[in-house]
Design goal:
Number of helices: 14
Oligomer: single chain
Strand content: 15-25%
Helix content: 25-40%
CATH class of the largest domain: Alpha Beta
CATH superfamily of the largest domain: Enolase-like C-terminal domain
Number of strands: 16
Structural class: alpha/beta
Strand order of the largest sheet: 4-5-7-8-9-10-11-12
Radius of gyration: 20 Å
Bound molecules: (2S,3R,4R)-2,3,4,5-tetrahydroxy-N-oxo-pentanamide, cobalt (II) ion
CATH architecture of the largest domain: Alpha-Beta Barrel
Largest sheet: 8 strands, parallel, barrel
Distance between the termini: 46 Å
Order of helices and strands: EEEHHHHEHEHEHEHEHEHEHEHEHEEHEE
């Protein structure tokens, strides 16, 4: 079974998505997400100009070998562009293998370890009452887990709290700059949000929060300790994680569970975090961390150290990535939770899929392969539009993590 065609499809049904489609000599197709938010064309070029020519004529059944071929064969290792490109190939090959076997991919990964994939939604608002209304909406929809984000007084527009974030949070904006970030204000005000949520809705659902890498370890430690009474499911991305040992400081001071990893590309980015048990949830995702093959390796390492999965699932990851994530999520022993930011109606139309939401869970469906495809005709109606993630600055103008 040889690969005879490898094509990159770029579409912008509300935001940009890059998709790799492979076709075999038997006419079977497979899709892989290759979207790297804000740097989409770099991955498209990596695939079109360098990887696709190497795939033609290769045996589509050799998933692991193809992964090693692209990783070791490229000589230059890791990094988001390379690992997203490898992920796209890997995901498409799993899709093809599932279709050839007549089985949903999760069956190839060992079958179900649970009945459904618990997901969390995003409750955002400029003010605490606005966030509370959003939490109510999610709980009414049956969600068992909700992430809460709120505006901070004295700070202008904060990434991730705009009310229409279902489509805006993950950054489909032309270089928005915010220039008054203050960690002191944030630390002072944010506990009141968790207090208000627990007071109104109680403790019978998972409550999450994302700090978008904006703190230092000691600031993070203080926050984690301060909010312990609200029993958060996790605090996410408290600090940038390039310095993995920095998490030791946070860990020494708080029992609030920690999650990090949505920008990680390989097992090497989290080896110390996992083996020293410095985090509780690893947020690496299929598309940016080398596909199903490599993410499974990360989750297997994590399982040895009591670290559970919590895959990034923002809506800048395409439905192809979400489908792949669900097959992995439902099969692994150490699943924690899956982020689920719904896609726009236009995106859902471009990517017809078998997964479905019910009662707080996502289900991958029983269609052979990943159960997701791209409608190329429709995709062609939404041409690429240049877009960037936002920039965050301190009051004095210093660039800060957003
Ligand atoms: O900012 O996916 O937890 N989710 C997030 C996301 C990320 C975007 C970046 O492309 O933090 O919204
Ligand atoms: Co995040």
């Amino acid at each position: 079974m040889k690969i005879i065609d490898a094509r990159v499809i770029i579409t912008c049904p509300g935001r940009n998505f890059v998709t790799l489609k492979l076709t075999t000599d038997e006419g079977v197709t497979g899709v892989g997400d290759a979207t790297l938010n804000g740097r989409e064309l770099a991955v498209a070029s990596y695939l079109t100009d360098h990887v696709c020519p190497l795939l033609l004529g290769r045996d589509a059944s050799r998933i692991e070998d193809t992964w090693q071929f692209l990783y070791k064969g490229g000589y230059w290792r890791r990094g988001p562009v390379t690992m997203t490109a490898i992920a796209a190939v890997d995901t498409a090959l799993w899709d093809i293998k599932g279709k050839m076997a007549g089985l949903p991919v999760y069956q190839l990964l060992g079958g179900r370890s649970r009945d459904g994939v618990t997901v969390y939604g995003h409750a955002n608002g400029e003010t605490v009452p606005e966030v509370l209304d959003e939490v109510a909406r999610f709980l009414d929809l049956g969600y068992r887990a909700v992430r809460v984000q709120v505006g901070i007084q004295g700070i202008g527009s904060i990434y991730g709290v705009s009310p229409d974030t279902a489509h805006r949070e993950s950054g489909y904006v032309p270089t928005a700059e915010s220039s008054d970030w203050s960690t002191a204000r944030y630390l002072h005000q944010i506990p009141a949000l968790f207090e208000a949520v627990r007071e109104r809705f109680g403790f019978d659902f998972a409550l999450l929060h994302d700090a978008h890498h904006r703190l230092t370890p000691i600031e993070a430690a203080r926050l984690g300790r301060r909010v312990e009474e609200y029993q958060l499911f996790w605090l996410e991305d408290l600090v940038p994680a390039e310095l993995q040992e920095g998490f030791r400081i946070i860990r020494q001071h708080t029992t609030t569970p920690l999650a990090v990893g949505e920008v990680f590309n390989s097992i090497w980015d989290c080896q110390q975090l996992i083996t020293e048990q410095l985090i509780d949830f690893i947020r690496a995702d299929v598309v940016h961390a080398g596909g199903i093959t490599h993410l499974r390796r990360i989750f297997q390492l994590a399982d040895l150290y009591h670290v559970r999965s919590g895959s990034h699932g923002a809506n800048d990851l395409s439905p192809v990535c979400l489908a792949a994530a669900l097959h992995l999520d439902i099969s692994i022993p150490n699943f924690g939770i899956q982020e689920y930011m719904r896609h726009s109606a236009e995106t859902d139309e471009v990517f017809p899929h078998a997964y479905s939401f019910a009662d707080g869970y996502l289900h991958p469906g029983e269609v052979p392969g990943l159960g997701v495809d791209i409608d190329e005709e429709l995709a062609a109606r939404y041409p690429y539009q240049r877009a960037y993630l936002p920039i965050n600055r301190l009051v004095d103008g210093t660039v800060h993590s957003w």
